[in-house]
């Protein structure tokens, strides 16, 4: 092998350069052959043979001989071959500046095959100097264009590592496949081990996509050359560690033959999908990736749940496992996976659709589920379904009524979900049954005589004085406010939407901020409130919800302490969904903290522990952020009064 490598590298300097590293597609042409003298070739060949066949120390030991060769043959073209190997030795020693300088010297002589080897050295030096992105740019065009095996091995290792360090996961996985295919037979086992170690650093979702892409190609590759076997092995380990039933099933469907020694364990995990299991003290969190809004809410809910469980505090005993309902999975599969990981209580429902499916799962599997968004009214029954959340539309109703009481009508609704804006359409002339101004939100959700949010027959938003509902998908146009002479405006969209509307709205318009509008309230605006929420610094002249006592009072010491605790680990005050997630986390912890400290799969014991969690959550008391109530009080829907406050005297 050494003799072949030496002869091949000499061919780069003395024969047609295009035979080895030819011109890249669309690139500059490689220079003609270097005219090495026969005497220089005869002297250099054994040096290159020893370099190609040597270990690191043996290569470094060749430096004096290569320097002497270059000195004797300074005018010979093959001196560049010696120079590039001296650059390699500098690289091996960690002298990266010298390696780059010598490689650049060879490259400066013009594009050639030996110049491509110099580029490999320069790219490797950049990567080892902590510059993976520039290194990747230098090395990627050379992949599969190097003829010498020992040069090719250096290139493949360095370019793959550069991609990994640059977080270019898709390219890194592709390059791992090239590296494995191009490795010499005697080096392939070591290369597989290196790739296996690198795969541990690749995010799991990228590995799953690689597995799916590999199956889609249908390419048949011998086992020792098949990267899919290494990807499948890594995913199998992850599935077993996380007890991820959905991933185990996908591995069986897509990579059964590649699972190797992991096959039996993965089949066992997949077969146990419906097995009851409780691990102490574990809470499961289901997120949604179905829409941009649900993804945003999911991130905020997850932050709140982690805070409520105390995961960011030293010494926390809580364990949180999470899944999402995106990709090719379903709510049932994701929730099954969470129960397989031992969750005794589940938190779910960042939108009505997911909440309704999660409520059905709770009843079917007899496991308590805390819903961050109310489900369809028909899904509220059952001992295992707990509703922590609130319909976003309720804060809009309260604010619209408050604006009307102040004479700031007609009212425009800006932003919010499409279904909420649809409900805000004006009622037909003469429509009966309109709720009195200010009635919305006066009764706690779930209290006797109060219709659950979203219930059939609930008054549409138009009956609360909303004359116009505007989306906020693009640039907000203030001209839309003029024909109906809008005097009040409820902002229900995200921060970007709210800021656009504020800049465009006339100063005569009174502003109100609904729950999801996460911006600092302008002076003179109305802000929807629920319990301690929103947790903001008290503005001058702030007004508490009706019935809260002295209107000049500032937010409670409890609110100040809660905000301080949150800001200790977060850059800004909690959003409404983060606050709901926090309350769900607090209540979930009440359900699991006193369960036995050992795991179990015994069906009777699992049933008993889940019922114990139900009982504990039903009667738990704690300071909550989104309601003045201190718990469910034996019910299944968290009581909540929606109010408002004024943020100042002038806008």
UniProtKB/TrEMBL annotation:
<keyword id="KW-0732">Signal</keyword>
<feature type="signal peptide">
    <location>
        <begin position="1"/>
        <end position="19"/>
    </location>
</feature>
<dbReference type="InterPro" id="IPR028082">
    <property type="entry name" value="Peripla_BP_I"/>
</dbReference>
<protein>
    <recommendedName>
        <fullName>Leucine-binding protein domain-containing protein</fullName>
    </recommendedName>
</protein>
């Amino acid at each position: 092998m050494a003799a072949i490598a030496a002869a091949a590298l000499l061919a780069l300097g003395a024969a047609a350069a295009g035979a080895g590293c030819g011109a890249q597609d669309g690139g500059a042409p490689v220079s003609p052959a270097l005219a090495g003298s026969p005497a220089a070739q005869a002297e250099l060949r054994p040096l290159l043979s020893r370099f190609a066949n040597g270990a690191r120390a043996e290569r470094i030991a060749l430096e004096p001989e290569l320097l002497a060769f270059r000195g004797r043959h300074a005018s010979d073209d093959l001196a560049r071959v010696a120079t590039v190997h001296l650059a390699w030795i500098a690289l091996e020693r960690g002298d990266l500046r010298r390696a780059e300088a010598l490689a650049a010297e060879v490259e400066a002589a013009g594009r050639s095959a030996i110049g491509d080897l110099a580029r490999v050295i320069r790219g490797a030096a950049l990567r080892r100097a902590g510059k993976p992105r520039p290194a990747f740019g230098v090395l990627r065009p050379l992949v599969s264009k190097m003829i010498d095996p020992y040069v090719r091995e250096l290139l493949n290792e360095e370019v793959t590592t550069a991609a990994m360090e640059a977080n270019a996961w898709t390219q890194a996985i592709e390059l791992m496949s090239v590296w494995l295919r191009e490795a010499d037979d005697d080096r392939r086992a070591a290369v597989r081990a290196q790739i296996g170690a690198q795969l541990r650093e690749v995010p799991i979702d990228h590995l799953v996509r690689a597995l799916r892409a590999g199956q889609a190609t249908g390419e048949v590759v011998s086992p020792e050359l098949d990267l899919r076997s290494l990807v499948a092995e890594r995913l199998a380990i992850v599935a077993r560690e996380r007890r991820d039933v959905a991933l185990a099933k996908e591995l069986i469907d897509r990579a059964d033959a590649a699972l190797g020694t992991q096959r039996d364990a993965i089949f066992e995990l997949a077969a146990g999908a419906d097995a009851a299991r409780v691990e102490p003290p574990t809470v499961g969190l289901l997120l949604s990736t179905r829409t941009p809004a649900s993804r945003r809410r999911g991130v905020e809910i997850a932050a709140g749940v982690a805070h409520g469980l105390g995961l960011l505090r030293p010494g926390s005993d809580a364990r949180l496992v999470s899944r999402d309902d995106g990709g090719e999975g379903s709510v049932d599969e994701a929730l099954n996976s969470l129960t397989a990981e031992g969750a005794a209580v589940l938190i779910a429902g960042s939108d009505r659709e997911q909440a309704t499916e999660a409520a059905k799962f709770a009843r079917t599997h007899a496991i308590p589920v805390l819903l961050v968004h109310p489900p369809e009214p028909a899904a509220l029954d059952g001992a295992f379904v707990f509703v922590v959340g609130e319909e976003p539309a309720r804060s809009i109703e309260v604010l619209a009524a408050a604006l009307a009481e102040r004479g700031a009508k007609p009212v425009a609704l800006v932003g919010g979900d499409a279904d909420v804006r649809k409900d805000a359409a004006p009622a037909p002339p003469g429509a009966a049954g309109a709720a009195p101004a200010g009635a919305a939100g006066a009764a706690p959700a779930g209290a006797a005589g109060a219709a659950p949010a979203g219930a059939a027959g609930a008054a549409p938003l138009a009956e609360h004085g909303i004359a116009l509902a505007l989306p906020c998908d693009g640039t907000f146009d203030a001209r839309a406010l003029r024909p109906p002479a809008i005097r009040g405006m409820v902002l229900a969209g995200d921060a970007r939407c709210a800021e656009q509307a504020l800049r465009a709205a006339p100063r005569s318009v009174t502003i109100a901020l609904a729950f999801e509008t996460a911006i600092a309230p302008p002076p003179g605006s109305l802000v929807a409130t629920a319990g301690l929420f929103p947790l903001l610094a008290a503005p001058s002249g702030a007004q508490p919800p009706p019935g809260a006592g002295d209107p000049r009072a500032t937010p409670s010491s409890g609110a100040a302490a809660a905000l301080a605790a949150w800001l200790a680990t977060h850059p800004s005050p909690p959003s409404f969904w983060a606050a709901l997630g926090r309350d769900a986390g607090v209540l979930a912890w009440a359900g699991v903290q006193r369960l036995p400290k050992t795991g179990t799969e015994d069906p009777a014991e699992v049933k008993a522990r889940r019922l114990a969690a139900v009982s504990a959550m039903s009667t738990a008391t704690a300071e909550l952020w989104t309601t003045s109530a201190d718990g469910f009080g034996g019910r299944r829907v968290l009581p909540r009064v929606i109010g408002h406050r004024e943020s100042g005297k002038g806008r």
